[in-house]
Amino acid sequence: MNEELLAIVRIWENANAVSDLEARCRALVESERKARKDLKLAIAELDEQRARRKQIRQREARLLSKLDTHQRQLRNTRKLIDLGQASDYQLATRQVESCKATIGDLETQILCSMEELDQVDLQIEKQRERVEACKRAVASSREATRQELPGLEERLSEFREVLPRLESELRLFHLEHIKRLRQSGQSIVSRLRDGCCSSCHFMLAPQMVNEVQSGARVHTCRHCGRYLVPAD
Ligand SMILES: [Zn+2]
């Protein structure tokens, strides 16, 4: 193969390898970042559930204290009625009924609160497991980064170091053409396939097909401008 074309293919392969390695590095870093974010969210949710539990317990304590007050009041009023010491019998009887109704209402509220507490306890238990799973995910992604990243970065710097030498084998107009292709976001090389440029499907003249296939000359696609290389 023509030496310049060979250098162009190597530059292309080098760029592909660099881009694959960079993608892998980014994926590792991103995976660790996501695991940490998930853990943070899971912990925040657990904190919220614990705060909710605390609120329910506080409300329950207030209800129990009210219940205690009303039960005492009920006992005292009944005692006065039983001893015939109530100053107003009818008022005392109404107080007993009202106390009983309030006690019934408080007991219902306490039961609801206890059920709510059971549910929150279950949610807290599940959330604790989720937090533990998130911690394991953080540890494993951190370990993957620790193990893989240095090797990937080393290979990246090797590929980057080779690039100037490969570029020095090319004449300036090729370097400028490569730069233009890169700036437009295109791959610099396209393979020949069935007599066409495999990137843009432009059909080549038979003589050009032969020359590309033999690799004897450097050709660019007249349509997309990529360097043409023989089929695999
Ligand atoms: Zn093309």
Provide key terms for this protein.
232 residues, mainly alpha, Helix Hairpins, three-stranded mixed beta sheet, 4 helices, binds zinc ion
Structure explained in plain terms:
The protein has helices at residues 3-83, 89-168, 172-183, 206-214; strands spanning 189-193, 196-197, 227-229. With 232 residues, it is mainly alpha-helical. It has 2 domains: 3-170, Helix Hairpins (Orthogonal Bundle); 187-229, no CATH class. The protein has a 3-stranded mixed β-sheet with strand order 2-1-3. Helix 1 (3-83) packs antiparallel against helix 2 (89-168). The longest helix has 81 residues, at 3-83. Bound molecules: zinc ion.
Output the CATH topology of the largest domain: Helix Hairpins
The largest beta-sheet arranges its strands as 2-1-3
Overall 3D geometry? rod-shaped
Can you count the beta strands? 3
Q: Summarize the main sheet.
A: 3 strands, mixed
Low-confidence stretches: none
What is the distance, rounded to the nearest whole angstrom, between the alpha carbons of the first and last residues?
14 Å
User: Please, how many helices?
Assistant: 4
Average of pLDDT: 96
Q: In angstroms, what is the radius of gyration?
A: 40 Å
* N-to-C series of helices and strands: HHHEEHE
The hetero compounds bound to this protein are: zinc ion
What is the total number of structural domains?
A: 2
Specify the CATH class of the largest domain.
Mainly Alpha
By CATH, the architecture of the largest domain is named: Orthogonal Bundle
**Fraction in beta strands:** under 5%
Helical percentage: over 70%
